[in-house]
Design a protein that fits this description.
- The protein has about 300 residues and is α/β, with parallel strands linked by helices.
- It has a single domain, classed as Rossmann fold.
- It is built from ten helices and eight strands.
- Helix 9 links the parallel strand 7 and strand 8.
- The chain is globular and about 50 Å long.
Amino acid sequence: MTVDPQIARLLADAVAKDPRGIETLSVADARIRGGSAPVDAIVAFEDVAETRDVNAGHIPARLYRPSAGTLPLLVYFHGGGWVVGSVKTSDNYCRALANASGCAVLSVDYCLAPEHEYPHAADDAYAATRWAAEHASELGVDPGRLAVGGSSAGGNLAAVASLMARERTGPRIALQLLHVPVMDHDFETASYRENATGRGLTRAAMQWFWGHYAPDVARRDEPYASPLGAKDLRGLPPAILVAAECDPLRDEGRAYAHRLRGDGVAVATLEYPGMVHSFMSWSAVVATARRAFVEVGAALRERLG
């Protein structure tokens, strides 16, 4: 398993710029740096037809609309290990995703750990999703084409919001987009061992993130923390699972897709050889990341109309 040469150069440049692992940083410094690897390449800025800051109940959010008319809606949760990241840092990503998919995107500024430990972010994700369904008309979206999605820790929150919606009183979710999601807290999978260091997101970084988000180790087994541990996935929304070959989280994403299929849930899997965890965030310079936006956008269009 070889990392794409373009990705390898980006990671080498990042290490030369700042060799510190995120696990050695304070939370404040980690937020200033912005993530596990200080890679300069980002998603290029794209214009969309409309952006608007809203309050999803008590939770700040930003709406991106790529065109006029009544659109499908993707409620999106950013990555960052539940500790770093924000609506602001994911702005370019959400613009690109809205344009690629034709969906309105509601980017949610859920509360972060360690100030707000598990399950606060999960509760925010569900509350924002429910709010979006209840306020579809003011957002200009079709509540019958409501999807949830997210990257990394945000993919975890999208899966959890889907579980909560199934087990509570809705809303009905048409699709879940799980992009390199955190599905479990097992640091001994083959993909963790193969990609423990040197590939952006590291095993030590994930242990640091989990330590801030769910410091009570016993609670990490709860399905709203580790969806892979849910006993029954029947009745969940269809899923698009995006995986990167050289990602510590690869195997738990694959395992969740396998569990969904086994419980009768339709899953489309997009896996990208040679890519690392954060590859789609580097689409300004990585051709495979640009292709992934096109393919993920097409998959959303196909399933949401």
